[in-house]
Write a structure and sequence with these properties.
The chain is mainly alpha-helical. It has nine helices and three strands; from the N terminus they run ααααααααβββα. The protein folds into two domains: 105 residues, DNA polymerase, domain 1 (Orthogonal Bundle), CATH 1.10.150.130; 106 residues, no CATH class. Bound molecules: zinc ion.
């Protein structure tokens, strides 16, 4: 026995039913929406919103079809904002979709738009994700050191190394040996405390910016008001540092 699934027959309109033009327009709109996936529709909506916000910011007329020149400037705007080339292309595709669906001119076929998107790809500028360390940030790093270090010695070592790096703008390779292995970390023999003036003097024999291989002498005074004074911190570290090691900043051998 064949079961009938549902009873669609009764919901179908009468064969003589003639829908209005408005009804056909609504249906056409629904069918188009059903023809694109939810995520794509969402992305395109975001694109159109972004484009409209851009036009508002620059007091451009928010008219459709969008002016070619507005799209050109919008791509440049996205690029200046640091958006990835792929994101810019997706946004332009969103605007192009609005044009296609309305049978307006094809943005994607514009020679200039194509070249602009190609240029975005080639001159892709990525934002530098490295944030400069601030004094507040340095203090926060100090606060978490006890949570990540193995011993009190390590806490003192890293406090000193980070403070010295911060106040003297040292590069990593000037303080420690990195994976590249082409570094010249400062040596313990080149560190001198001038007690009378609360100054620490360090001879940096190799620096990246020294073209003629001449050593640089860096000096810093005690930052009495600062909790993260590099001179006091370095002095404390040096008092605990194992003897007989060449480099200034060294780990304990029996770290475990
Ligand atoms: Zn100090």
């Amino acid at each position: 026995m064949i079961q009938r699934v549902g009873n669609r027959g009764s919901s179908l309109p009468h064969p003589n039913f003639i829908p209005t033009v408005e009804c056909l327009q609504r249906t056409a709109s629904k069918l188009v929406q059903a023809g694109i996936s939810g995520n794509t529709a969402l992305t395109y909506n975001t694109a159109v919103e972004s484009f409209n916000t851009f036009r508002k910011q620059y007091a451009f007329r928010a008219e459709w079809p969008a002016r070619h020149n507005q799209i050109v400037l919008y791509i440049a705007f996205c690029f200046e904002k640091g958006l990835a080339a792929r994101t810019i292309a997706t946004y332009v595709a969103g605007i192009a979709f609005v044009h296609k669906i309305n049978d307006w001119y094809d943005i994607g076929e514009s020679f200039v738009v194509k070249k602009l998107l190609e240029g975005c790809k080639r001159q892709h500028r990525t934002r530098d994700s490295r944030a400069p360390v601030t004094l507040t940030m340095l203090s926060k790093i100090w606060e978490v050191l006890p949570l990540v270090c193995f011993s009190r010695y390590e806490i003192t070592l890293f406090k000193a190394a980070f403070s010295v790096a911060f106040f003297w703008l040292f590069r990593v390779g000037e303080l420690a040996v990195t994976q590249l292995g082409e570094d010249h970390p400062i040596q313990y023999a080149d560190v001198e405390f001038i007690e009378a003036s609360s100054v620490c003097k360090i001879i940096v024999r190799f620096t990246k910016t020294s073209q003629y291989g001449q050593p640089a002498i860096v000096k810093l005074r005690c930052e009495h008001k600062s909790q993260v004074c590099p001179v006091c911190t370095l002095r404390e570290y040096v008092s605990k540092r194992p003897l007989g090691r060449v480099y200034c900043f060294v780990m304990q051998k029996d770290r475990g």
